[in-house]
Structure formats: structure tokens, C-alpha cells
């Protein structure tokens, strides 16, 4: 009898053991493979060429130079294909058909609020809004001009985007903001729209025809119940599977021999824990799921689908089976064509375009003819600019004599309460302050397309250190109020140029967002810079305007010549800003109340700059112009600033 009770107790304990609670945890793994095209071209197609056509739009208005080649140099990159100039196995043509920039509308908003006493306050704000669109379409053709695919990248009412400015407390403040920033905002919006749609299209091309190396995060299910008899072994098997899958590459598949023991173990779990009790169904769920993952990465999709069906029949958590099964069925279809695995070598480094067909020869002749016409137009512009340079150069200052003659002069400005002695160190400080502000405005206004803002933002750190050095050189030459303001201005620059802040401003994929982020810092810096200039210039507005515009022009010219940007598009944006400042300076010359002597020096300085702006084409990178800019920067620019400051 005692033996009978002992046997019954053993069986009871065994039953409790097998049905005891089991916890599961996600077990992270990484898997590498080659994402195969969803709509593949023949595998022998290895090259492509691109062509961009801009109708009814000056690409300068979108932040590019007026050359379609700017776009061709950036877009597209298709993984598993090699770009060729012309005659690729496929040709991708993108056509931009003008743009629609709606009329800006002022939106007035009133918000009512009450204080604790019930007194009602109405807050009024104003902002500008409008809709905009850049219609674009594409055509993909084969060697003989047959259309493989075509469609729209942007057209119709659903493609319009809406711009909204920041809010301003008065309509006048909003109007002033728009007068100063409207052109650059529109340029950023157009460029951002084009960039976004082309980037999206590039992603679609890679999905449909590309061969993209991928490393993805995936999971297994592991046990987390130390008292359960399977806990340690289940964890060990998961670790073995993880190690085997980690050895996969885009070219090397998962080894069956390394995961075969894991499959056998998970199969044994299905038999060993077969009861219709929740803990056992939960453990079977982990086994079915892990086997489905293993078979998926083995590319044994029939067995992966079988395991997904097992998950459903197990009735613990059916939801995971749906996506796993759909993915397995899709990959089974993908690998039913010429390519039998998502792990193989596709090397196109030595790929060459096939001989040009008759259609491609005609296309190439038309392309070369268009390039020739454009080159002739640009050469004519260069010759006109070159012919005008000697005349402008004849009016240049004798820079060395000018610097020597005024370098030791001291002048005083200010009222009875405050006077500032201007010598060269103080003049350098004023230049550095203005150029720092010009640099910061560059980031916000116009260098926000295609990552151009990044270099300018990083340059701010160098500019700030120069600013600090110039301030330290001045010592006690500033009065207390001016010195305090300058210290505060430097402190604000320091806070704004920390790495985390500047990184948040570098958003080339979203120029409108970048500009909105910059509104508050720019307004703050503008107010503080103006305060500092007012103090040291005794509120002489003519001098303040001239010094600010000169800094804008010189800083942007330096960017256009000193190789800060690798992208010609960015250099051209900087040049356009310099040209705008030059035009405004010419207007200031006629309207200012400066002495005739200073006006004469100012005119000579503008004559020195004049050869740089004789052409519609950016010629600043040409050696003679680079030398001219450097010469002005080192000599006549600081010399004129010093004389302007020292003259009543």
C-alpha cells in the first residue's frame, strides 16, 4: 500500500512539474541579407543613366544652379546598378514642369484668456500661409526607348503642401519678416519639395529594382523561468541559433548544419509538452515561432509556412503567424524567378553599358547639342565679365599705402557720456561680430538645401573662437555698457553653437523646419547685435547698415571661394547672397549721409568688388577672382571699416 501511495505522489508531482508556469522573453537577433527587387529587371541589366528636364522653372529659384546636371549628380543611387553617363540598360527621365507658389495670405488669430480675477485678455497673432507644388513626372525606358514604367512624382491637389510662418504679435512685424526672408523661404520650400520627392522616388526605385544590403533586427522567444526543467536548455539553444544567424552575410546564407540541432530540439518540445494547458501551449508557441524564424532565414519557406500554421493551431497567440506567413509567401514568389537566394554576390563595379542602340544614339546627340548650346552661352558671359575687369581694377585702392596711412590713426566717436576710441583691434572686433552674425544668417536663410547648412553650422565654432579672441584683444577700450553687451552677445553665441543645438539645425531633408527652428535665435542675435552696434556707433544707422552688408558680402564670398562646400550648389547659394548684398550696398552709397571723403572711399571699395558681379554666372572659383577676394579681405575691406569707424 505504501508503494502505491508513493507511486501516486510521484505521478502527481510529475504532473505539476510539466504543467508549471512558464515565462517567455524576447531574445534579440540580427540577420543580414540582400533585399531583392520586388519588380526585378533581367539580371543582366546592370547599368542605368539619368536625365533631368526642367521646364518652366529656373532651378536657381529652388536653390540649385540653373543646370539639370546638378540634379543628375545627386540623384539617383540604385543599389546593385552602376550609373553611366548615357546608354544604360535602362534610362530614367525626370521632368519638372514649373511650379505653383500660391499667393501668401495673412491669417489673424485671436485667443481669449482670463486671469484669476476673471479679467479677459485677447492676444492677437499674425502669420503667413500659402500652398505650393512642384509638378514632376518620370519615365523609365529600355535600350530601344520602350517605356518600362512611367508615372507622377507630384501632381494634383493631393500633392500640394502648405507653408505656415511663425506667429508675430503685429502685422508690421510679420510684414518685415516676410520682406527680409520671403525669397529665401520660397527658395527653400521649392528645393525641399524637389529633394523630398526625388529622395522618395529613389527609395522606391531601390525597393522595386534594386539589390539593397540589409541588416535587420529580429527576435526569438526564450524562456525566463529558472525553476522550469527546460529553462537552461531552451536558453542555450536560442543562443546557438543567434550565433548561427549572426554569421549570415548578404553573400553567405544560413548554415543548415548549424541550426539542425535547434530544429530537432524545438520539435521535441512539441511532443514532450503536448497537453492543452496554457503553460504547455505557451512553450509550444515559442518552439513553433522559433522554428518558423529559422526556416525563414534558411529560405525554406514551405516549412516556415507550416510552422506558422502550427502557431495558429496551437491557439496561444495567432497574431504573430500572420506577418510571418505573409513574408514567407512573398519571398517564395520572389525566389521563383531567376534569383534563387537572397544571399549572393552582385558585383557591378566593372559593369559596362551595352553598345548604343539607334534610339540611344539620337538621344545622345540631342543631349550633347543642348550641352554645347549652354556652354556657348556661358562662355559669352565669361568673356563679357573678363572684358569689364580691367576697367573696374583701375579704380582699386593702393591697399598697402592705405593700410599704413590709417593704421596708426585714432578717432573718437560718441556723445559726452560715452566715447569709444577706434583702432585696428576694435575695428577687427566689429568685423568679427558682423561676420559671425552673417554666418548664422547663412544657415537659416539659404543654405538649408541638400545639407549645405552643415558646413556653415560647423564653421560657427571657428568663427566664435575668432570673435572671442578679437574681444580679448580690445581689452578696456570699450565703455562698461558696451563691454557688458558684448560679453552677453558672446555668451548667447556660445549657448547656441553647442554641438547638440547646432545638430538640431542641420536638417537638410526639411529646410522649412530648419528655418522655423532658426527664427527665434536669429531674432535674438539680430537684436543683440544691433544693440552692440548702436552703443559703439552712437546709433549711426548709415554706418551700421554699411558694416552689416559688407560683412554679409565678404563672408559669403569667402564661402564661395575657400572650398568650405564640396557641392557647387552650395557655393552658388553663397555667391547669390553676396550679389544681393552688393546690390544693396550700391544703393546705400547714394542714400547715406556720410562725408564726401568716406563716400569716395566707399565707391572705390565697391569698384574693387565689381568684377566679381559682372556675370550672371558664378565665377568666384576662377583663380583671378579667388585672388581678388582674398586681397580685398586682407586689405581694403578692413582698411575701409577702420576709416569708416574713425570718421565722424
UniProtKB/TrEMBL annotation:
Residues 1-19 form the signal peptide. InterPro entries: TPR-like_helical_dom_sf (IPR011990). Keywords: Signal. It comes from the Bacteria. SUPFAM superfamilies: TPR-like. This is Tetratricopeptide repeat protein. It comes from Arcicella lustrica. The lineage of its organism: Bacteria, Pseudomonadati, Bacteroidota, Cytophagia, Cytophagales.
